[in-house]
Amino acid sequence: MAVQDWQVVIGLEIHAQLSSKTKMFSSDSTEFGQEVNKNTSPTSLGLPGALPTINKKAVELGVKMGLALNCDIRKNFSFSRKNYFYPDLPKAYQISQHQDPVCEKGYLEIFFNGEFKKIAIERAHLEEDAGKSLHKEGATLVDFNRSGVPLLEIVSEAVLTSPKEAAEYSRQMRQLLLYTQVCDGNLQEGSMRCDCNISLCKPGEPWGTKVEIKNINSFKFIEKALDYEIKRQAKVLESGEKTVQETRLYDVKNNVTVSMRAKEDAHDYRYFPDPDLLSVCLEETDIQSWKKDLPELPIPKMQRFIKDYQLKPEDAFAIAQNQNFANFFEKVATQSKNFKSSYNWMVGDVLKYMNEEKKELKNLNFSSSQLAQLISLIDQEVISGKIAKLVFADMMKTGKDPEAIVEEKSLKQITDEKAILHFIEDSLKNFDKQLQEYRSGQTKLFGFFVGTTMKASEGKINPALLNKLLKQYLDK
Amino acid sequence: MPWINKSVYELKNALEKKEVTAVELSQSLLSHAKKHNKKINAIISFNPKLLDEAKDSDQRRATNTLKGELDGIPIVVKDMFCTKGLKTTAASKMLENFIPPYSSTVVKNLQNAGALLLGKANQDEFAMGGTNEYSYFGNCLNPWNTDYVAGGSSGGSAASVAGGFAPLALGTDTGGSVREPAHFCGVVGLKPTYGRLSRYGVISFASSLDQPGIMGKQVKDVALALQVSSSYDPKDATSANCEVPHFSKNITSNIKEKKIGLLLPENGVDKNIVEKFNAVKEILKEQGCKIVPVSFSYLSSVACVYHIIASSEASSNLARYDGVRYGYSADFSKKPAENLMDFYATSRAEAFGEEVKRRILLGTYVLSSGYYDAYYKKACQLRYLIAQEFKKILQSVDCILSPVSGGVALKVGANKDNLSKNYDHDWLTVGANLAGLPALSVPAGFSDKGLPIGLQLLSSHFQEQTILDVALNIEENLQTYKKKNSFCS
Prior knowledge:
The structure holds two protein chains of two kinds. By secondary structure, chain A is an alpha+beta fold. Chain A contains 16 helices and 16 strands.
C-alpha cells in the first residue's frame, strides 16, 4: 500500500497567548523580551503564601474568541489544578480548566481548495503558561517571565484530513485571533503554538493509535511534521507493527519527528478545582456586549466582498486575510467605484511597496482616498495607466494628492487631436527612411513610431488617441 | 514584670498616659519571652528589629502621628505568615532559612495600625497537627504545665499569649488550629468567617479551609485585633468584599434574648469539660438567653471529610517545595542526582517531617485517578450537606455552644503513635472550617488537674459580633483570665 492509500485524521490543539497586558492570575506584565525574571511577583514565582486572582480582561478575550468560533459559552466555569513536577512550573501545578471549559462545541469555517469547510471545535479553555528552561554550561536556568502568561487552548475535533488542511486551519485560526484582537499572532515570540494529534487507518478499519507532535510554531512546519509522520506511521503499519501512543517533537533541521516520551509514563494530573479561586459567573449582558464588540470576521467579510465588489472567491479571500488591508481596500473601492482596479492596485503596487519598504498600512504616506483619486484620474482619462505609476511613486514619497502631483508636474494626458498631430509630425520628421519602409509594407515599425512620439510627449499622450491618429497619419 | 499580664486595652492606656514607653514595654516583654522560651519553646525566631520599631512608635506618639489602634503593642505571629525580611519557616526544615520578600496582608494590616512584631511562633509543621509535636524546631509546651502540650497547630501562638510573651497573637485555623490550642492554653481564640481575613502571604495548607485567626488574653482585645486585621484584599480571590463592622465599638455583654443552641455530644467528652459546659449554660440562662438543645447528624463523619479535603489540597499546595527556587535543596555534591525526579524526591524526603509526608501521600492518593470519585468527590458532596445542616440549625439559633474538643491538653507524647486518635480529635472544630463559619474558643475554667478548659461558640457567616458578645459575657461572669500560671505570676 502506498501512503496515499491510508486515511489520515488530525486534531489540533492551538495555544494562543491572550493579548492582555497582565498575566492570567497576577498583575505582572506580559511584555515580551524583558530582562530575565523581570516580569515576576510572589504569585508567578510560586512563593509560599502567594495566591492567584483572575484577570477579567483575559476572561473577556477568551470568551470573545469563543464567540468568534461559534462556541457555546459557559456562564459558570471554574479553574482546576493540573498537578505535575517540572522545573519551569513554579507551583508544581498549572492552573487550567478541566471539566467545564468556558467555550465548547463550536467551529471554525475555513476556505480551502476553493471551498468552504466547517472544522469542529471541541473546546477552548483558559490557562496559564509555564516558565522557560534555559540550558547553559551544564546548568539549567529558569526564566519565569512567561510563567502565568494567559493562554487560550483551542482544541479541534479530530476532523482534519491532510497536513495541508491542518496548516491552513491554523493559518486561518491565526487570522481570526488577529481580527478579534484576542492574540497578536506573533509566531516568533511564541504567541501561538500548536500540538498536532494524528493517526492513520486503512479505509473501513479502526483508527490506529494516535501520536502527538508537540509545540510547533510555524504553519510550514505543521505541514512538514505531519507529512513526515504520515510516512513514518504508514511504514510502521505496513510492516504489521502497531504505532505506540507517544509524544514526539519535530526536528526542524532534519525534517523528522523524534520521540519525546511514551505514554507509559503518562501523568496522572490529579485535576481538582483550584480552591484558591472562586468559580467565574459571567453576566449575559457582558457576553452580549462582547459579542457586539466583535468586528466582521474574515469569512463573512470575504463573502461580502465577493457579492459587493464582484471579486473572485480567491481574490476576496486574499484581501480579507488581513483586516486592515481589507478595510483599506474597501475604502478605495467604495470611493473610486472601480472594484477591479482597486483590487489590482492593492495586491499589486501597494503590497509591493509595503513589502519593499517594510511598511505597515498605518504608516503609509498616502491615504485610501488619495489612492481612490488616482484610480479615478485614470478612469476619467486624465492620466494614463503608465503615468499613474509615476504619480503613485511620488505619492509614496511625498503623500501629496495625485491631482496636485499631476498639476505640478503637468502630467495631464494630451487628448487634443491637433496637439497630438503636432507631436506626430514633429517626432517623425527625422525618420524619413523608416517612413519609407513602413509605407512599403514594414508595418511592424508602427510600434517604433508610437514609442518615439510617446517619448517626445513624456508619455502624456492618450495612448488610444495616439494609435488612432498615428494610423491615420501614416496611412495618408 | 508589671506588663506581662496586661490586656491590650490596659497597655494602650498605659502608653497613652505615658506610664510606659513602647521601648520599655517591648524590652520588658522581650526579656520575659526570651527567658521563658527556653522552657516552652513558643517562639522560633525573635524579631531583631523590635526595639527599633518600638522607638519609631514612641517617636510617633511624641509627634502625635500614631498609626492606629495598636501603636506600640507587641504581637506574636505564627510562622505561617510571611514577614518581609524575617525568617518564615512553617516550622519545617524545608523552609528553615526562607526569608520572604513580602509580608502577608494581615501582618501588614496589623503593622499599619502600629502593632510591633515581637517574634514568629512555633507550630506544627505546615500547620499539620493538633499538639505542636510535629515541629522541626521541637515541641511547644503548655505554660500551665510543661508536661503537657500547648495544642496545635498554633501552639506557639497560644502559649505565647498564655505565657505572657505578648497580649495578642496571630494563628491559622484549618481544622481547629486556633481554637484547640486556645482551649488547651486558656486563652481566647477566634477563627473568623472564611474570607474575613486575607490569606495572601499566609503559607497554604488547605486553601478552602485555611483562615488566619486571632488569639488574645481577653475578648475585647480579640475584637479590636479582628477589626484591624480585616480588610477586603484584591490579592486573595476568596477574600470577602464586605464592610468590616466596628467590632470593638459595638461589642457588648448584653446578650438578653439571644438564642443559644447547645451541642453536647453524649459520648467522647471529658467530664471536666461537661461540667464547665453546664456551668456556662446556667450563666447564659441567667443572662436572659433562650437555650435550646441542637443535634448535628454529621458529627461522626466530619473528621473523615475534613482529612480527605485538607490532605488533597495540601498535597497540591506543598508540591511547590521542590528545592528549585527556594527552601531546602538536597546535597548532591558527592553523588549527583540520577534524574530530575531523584532531585525532587530526595530534597522533599529529607526536608518534610513524617506527618507532612503522611498527609501529602494521603492527599495524592485520594485525588489520583480511580479514587477521586470515591474519596475527594464524595467528601465534597458531604461537605455541602454539612454546610446545609449548619445553615438549618443557625436559622433557629444565633449561635451554637459546644466543647472545643473531647479532652483537655494531652501529656507530651500521649498520642504520638496513635494516628486514628490524632485524626479524630478535631471532630468538634472542623465543622466550622468545612462550612466557613466563624467560631471562637472562650476560656471557661480549669480541670481537676489545673489545665485550662475552653468552650466553643459558633455562628453564621460574618456574625463574629454575636460570638464575641456572648464570649464577653462569659468572660465577665467567669473572669478566668485573672488566674495566673507560674510564668505570669
